């Protein structure tokens, strides 16, 4: 891997911003295109096949938010379109003269108040695939309340740290996991869980602090 390894310092803070109606409309346009031009069968189980639009919308909207935060070109395709594959290279940033290639991992949660033992799930096939261009994963969480969507920018983590077993726990396909509310789900493929407390705090600037709805948060 060409990128110099960044030492994990853990999560010191995260921040949230409001998602605009324009960002949502742009994401919907990309998702509509991807659904129309998706020639490959989904790998998801029956429950998630019914949520294909929601899953793609979540991922695409996270990428748009990231691009706007860091002054990068917005995606022109949503994952799923024939010409929407990126091999894990969603965006590239130069931080302190270091090239960092990010794969954006966005989830939708019922809250934007997080604890250190909350987790980001990453499919093991993404981490271990030989043609992946990813150096780092960037974690974003979306929360909808009263027709308003808030994006919480949790931070980033190194793929190398996962492969070196410094962070993350690998759960095999078929493993049953229990949520905080006592409900459970079963992994349909080998998956890594990474604690939020092991995700490095996000990049932030004075410009970002001017975004609508900006708030600083700390893990509980």
Please describe what this structure looks like.
By secondary structure, the chain is an alpha+beta fold. The protein contains five helices and eleven strands, in the order E-H-H-H-E-E-E-H-E-E-H-E-E-E-E-E. A six-stranded mixed β-sheet has the order 2-3-5-6-1-11. The chain has a three-stranded antiparallel β-sheet with strand order 4-10-7. The longest helix is centred in the first third of the chain and has 18 residues, at 52-69.
Summarize the SSE layout with pairings.
Elements: E1 14-18, H1 21-36, H2 46-49, H3 52-69, E2 91-95, E3 98-108, E4 119-123, H4 124-128, E5 136-145, E6 148-158, H5 159-163, E7 169-171, E8 176-178, E9 184-186, E10 191-195, E11 215-217
Parallel strand pairs: 3-5
Antiparallel strand pairs: 1-6, 1-11, 2-3, 4-10, 5-6, 7-10, 8-9
Helix pairs in contact: 1-3
Choose one word for the global shape. Answer: globular
Helical percentage: 10-25%
* Terminal-residue CA separation: 34 Å
Residue-averaged pLDDT, rounded?
A: 86
Secondary structure class reads: alpha+beta
Per DSSP, the total helix count is 5
Strand share of the residues?
A: 25-35%
Unreliable spans are: 1-6
């Amino acid at each position: 891997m060409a990128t110099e390894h960044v030492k994990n310092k853990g999560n010191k803070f995260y921040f949230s911003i409001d998602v605009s109606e324009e960002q949502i409309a742009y994401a919907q346009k990309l998702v509509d295109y991807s659904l129309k031009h998706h020639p490959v069968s989904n790998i998801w189980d029956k429950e998630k096949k019914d949520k294909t639009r929601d899953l793609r919308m979540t991922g695409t909207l996270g990428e748009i938010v990231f691009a706007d935060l860091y002054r990068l070109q917005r995606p022109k395709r949503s994952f799923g379109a024939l010409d929407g594959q990126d091999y894990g290279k969603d965006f590239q940033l130069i931080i302190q003269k270091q090239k960092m290639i990010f794969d954006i991992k966005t989830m939708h949660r019922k809250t934007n108040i997080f604890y250190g033992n909350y987790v980001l799930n990453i499919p093991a096939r993404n981490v271990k695939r030989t043609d992946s261009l990813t150096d780092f994963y960037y974690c974003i969480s979306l929360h909808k309340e009263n027709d308003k969507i808030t994006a919480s920018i949790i931070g980033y983590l190194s793929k190398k740290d996962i492969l070196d077993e410094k962070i993350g726990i690998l759960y095999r396909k078929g493993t049953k996991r229990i949520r905080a509310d006592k409900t459970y789900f079963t992994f349909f493929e080998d998956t890594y869980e990474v604690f939020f407390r092991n995700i490095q705090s996000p990049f932030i600037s004075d410009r970002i602090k001017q975004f609508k709805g900006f708030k600083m948060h700390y893990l509980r």
